[in-house]
Amino acid sequence: MTTAVDEDPGRPAIELAGVHKDYLSHGETVQAVRRLDLSIAQGEFFSLLGPSGCGKTTTMRMIAGFEEPTGGTVFLDGRDVTRVSPNKRDVNMVFQSYALFPHLNAYQNVAFGLERRKVDKAEIRRRCGEIMEIVSLTGMEKRAPREMSGGQQQRVALARALVNRPRALLLDEPLGALDLKLRQQMQVELKRIQREVGITFVYVTHDQGEALTMSDRIAVMDAGRIDQLGSPREIYERPATRFVAGFIGTSNLLDGTVESITGDVARLSYGEGERVLVPVSGTMKTGDDLEVSVRPEKIDLSQQPPDGDGTSVLTGVVTEVVYHGTSTNYTVKTSAGPDLVVFDQNAFSAEDLAGPGDRVYLSWSPQHSYPIGV
Amino acid sequence: MLAPYLLILPGGLWLLLFFVIPMVTMLSLSLQQGDIVSGYVFTGHWQTYVDAVVNYRTQLVRSLIYGAVTTVILIVLAFPVSYWIAFYGGRRKPTYLFLLLLPFFVSFVLRTISWRYILTDEGMLLGPLKSAGLLPDGFNILGTPVAVIGGLVYNFLPFMVLPIYVALERIDPRVVEAARDLYADPATAFRKVILPLALPGVFAGVLMTFVPASSDYVNSAVLGSSSTTMIGQVIQSQYLTSSNYPTASALSFTLMAVLLVGVFAYARALGTEDVMKVAAR
């Protein structure tokens, strides 16, 4: 049984050291996960985010014990569990399709883990009742999984794992099968439950919105590697790679050469009266080629040229206007080259700022230009 | 509006013609008296049933025992085979199933007769073993219950394998993983998750093998002897050799009644309604 006695708050709940996973597929070796180093703190809400096939699920399954790493070590709570079978690991998993036991009712599903651990009957009843209340399933005990809605099955899957008070809960795209409304509701609820039980959550998802809303930290994975690891804000505001910039939200990417540096602002020039201002970072110097990311909601769109020369300015022609309710999205073909997307909040403007074919000025302040990989 | 009724019309007619009418005819026959030359007359003489059961109770009981033993052996043989194909067959599952069914493309009787050649006293199996001194000269299999039950097991194997396979194949591997994740070792995961979910398949397999195996008459006729005579053989000879239609019909009905009672008791004991609900999910 898990006790809080030997808990060392400084020790990571989960640690992966040089973990590697190769598959043999049609006679060829596929590297699903490549030399991954990762440390997840006690009580953290940690997300593994990436497109399908990026290795996030394989990583989680190695933590759960369903896949054995080709190389490297998995530590749970400081203990090497690389070769330990899943039933002997103090982590529990919430499966994508819930994987409830179809021949057992909701209560029996929840009690399954405690029964295997030979917990006292009265204690099982007490803890199952408690956890089913936390996930709002009281009164559903006798229902069979097939008699429950997707959201309710989801809660059973969650309760079935949480009732064991594992060191970490592993969630594999747990909200993927729910409709949008329910998914948003469950996001809030999952976060509440996590705060309530104080267990480390490792959350695998391809939905960047979900990861940004819920996580303390996110690891963005691509092709078996972690591209960036950081808080949601860091990942969104300062994408480390072109992949992260493109995968998280909508990103505008601009290529340019540093023409001059004034104080802590580098200036990239394009056409007549056009410029992109970037905060100087690292070893940036005149003549460097930069890749700059600008988020669509940071850009101001206007039919008049902006005042002063303290902002980035690009000109272009509107090609598309899409109304989204809370915001309006403009696509602008810039003279500098790429199409830029601009989100305009509909808080102040009752009408569109411009229509297709209009010549417009795009401007944003220097701190919203983020140079990638510098 | 009438479409559903029209759709069951051909099947309904078929059942009426080849099931209901023969059954009623047989029931009536079993209560008639007379002989093949002067003809049979309906007299409601139910004493035929009593006499038939008293005279042939040995064969009746033997058939049920052979059927039961066959069914148990089939479960033991079929479960591992189905399990392996369902969980480890991978992309070759259809191939393995086809290989399993391949012998059954040959006629039932022909296959049973070929077993006769294999099992005969100086045949390809016992001959070499005897000349090597591994078996005594008088040893024989043919004509014993072992040969008959062996033949039954062989002939009904697919009817046990297929339903169990279907039940196992439908088990989501994630559900088994979930059990392992929730502290069940492989044996417990099998006992608590795989076995209960496979039960509807075993149930279907038992129905599909116990009933026909108990009433089979080919295996005992070809592989057995007078000491292994099964009720099916008695019915056949009463009909075709003795032309004693009332006794043959009475035995057929008795066998049917015994099997029906057995099946319902079995369903009740296993709580099949629950099991069937799971299967229908």
UniProtKB/TrEMBL annotation, chain A:
<dbReference type="InterPro" id="IPR027417">
    <property type="entry name" value="P-loop_NTPase"/>
</dbReference>
<comment type="subunit">
    <text>The complex is composed of two ATP-binding proteins (PotA), two transmembrane proteins (PotB and PotC) and a solute-binding protein (PotD).</text>
</comment>
<dbReference type="GO" id="GO:0005524">
    <property type="term" value="F:ATP binding"/>
</dbReference>
<dbReference type="InterPro" id="IPR005893">
    <property type="entry name" value="PotA-like"/>
</dbReference>
<dbReference type="InterPro" id="IPR008995">
    <property type="entry name" value="Mo/tungstate-bd_C_term_dom"/>
</dbReference>
<dbReference type="InterPro" id="IPR017879">
    <property type="entry name" value="PotA_ATP-bd"/>
</dbReference>
<dbReference type="InterPro" id="IPR003593">
    <property type="entry name" value="AAA+_ATPase"/>
</dbReference>
<keyword id="KW-0472">Membrane</keyword>
<protein>
    <recommendedName>
        <fullName>Spermidine/putrescine import ATP-binding protein PotA</fullName>
        <ecNumber>7.6.2.11</ecNumber>
    </recommendedName>
</protein>
<keyword id="KW-0547">Nucleotide-binding</keyword>
<keyword id="KW-0813">Transport</keyword>
<comment type="function">
    <text>Part of the ABC transporter complex PotABCD involved in spermidine/putrescine import. Responsible for energy coupling to the transport system.</text>
</comment>
<keyword id="KW-1003">Cell membrane</keyword>
<dbReference type="Pfam" id="PF00005">
    <property type="entry name" value="ABC_tran"/>
</dbReference>
<dbReference type="GO" id="GO:0015594">
    <property type="term" value="F:ABC-type putrescine transporter activity"/>
</dbReference>
<keyword id="KW-1278">Translocase</keyword>
<dbReference type="InterPro" id="IPR003439">
    <property type="entry name" value="ABC_transporter-like_ATP-bd"/>
</dbReference>
<dbReference type="InterPro" id="IPR017871">
    <property type="entry name" value="ABC_transporter-like_CS"/>
</dbReference>
<keyword id="KW-0067">ATP-binding</keyword>
<dbReference type="GO" id="GO:0043190">
    <property type="term" value="C:ATP-binding cassette (ABC) transporter complex"/>
</dbReference>
<comment type="similarity">
    <text>Belongs to the ABC transporter superfamily. Spermidine/putrescine importer (TC 3.A.1.11.1) family.</text>
</comment>
<dbReference type="InterPro" id="IPR050093">
    <property type="entry name" value="ABC_SmlMolc_Importer"/>
</dbReference>
Automatic annotation (TrEMBL), chain B:
<protein>
    <submittedName>
        <fullName>ABC transporter permease</fullName>
    </submittedName>
</protein>
<dbReference type="InterPro" id="IPR035906">
    <property type="entry name" value="MetI-like_sf"/>
</dbReference>
<feature type="transmembrane region" description="Helical">
    <location>
        <begin position="248"/>
        <end position="267"/>
    </location>
</feature>
<keyword id="KW-0812">Transmembrane</keyword>
<keyword id="KW-1133">Transmembrane helix</keyword>
<dbReference type="GO" id="GO:0055085">
    <property type="term" value="P:transmembrane transport"/>
</dbReference>
<keyword id="KW-0472">Membrane</keyword>
<feature type="transmembrane region" description="Helical">
    <location>
        <begin position="189"/>
        <end position="211"/>
    </location>
</feature>
<feature type="transmembrane region" description="Helical">
    <location>
        <begin position="63"/>
        <end position="85"/>
    </location>
</feature>
<comment type="similarity">
    <text>Belongs to the binding-protein-dependent transport system permease family. CysTW subfamily.</text>
</comment>
<feature type="transmembrane region" description="Helical">
    <location>
        <begin position="138"/>
        <end position="168"/>
    </location>
</feature>
<keyword id="KW-0813">Transport</keyword>
<dbReference type="Pfam" id="PF00528">
    <property type="entry name" value="BPD_transp_1"/>
</dbReference>
<feature type="transmembrane region" description="Helical">
    <location>
        <begin position="97"/>
        <end position="118"/>
    </location>
</feature>
<dbReference type="InterPro" id="IPR000515">
    <property type="entry name" value="MetI-like"/>
</dbReference>
<dbReference type="GO" id="GO:0005886">
    <property type="term" value="C:plasma membrane"/>
</dbReference>
<keyword id="KW-1003">Cell membrane</keyword>
<feature type="domain" description="ABC transmembrane type-1">
    <location>
        <begin position="60"/>
        <end position="266"/>
    </location>
</feature>
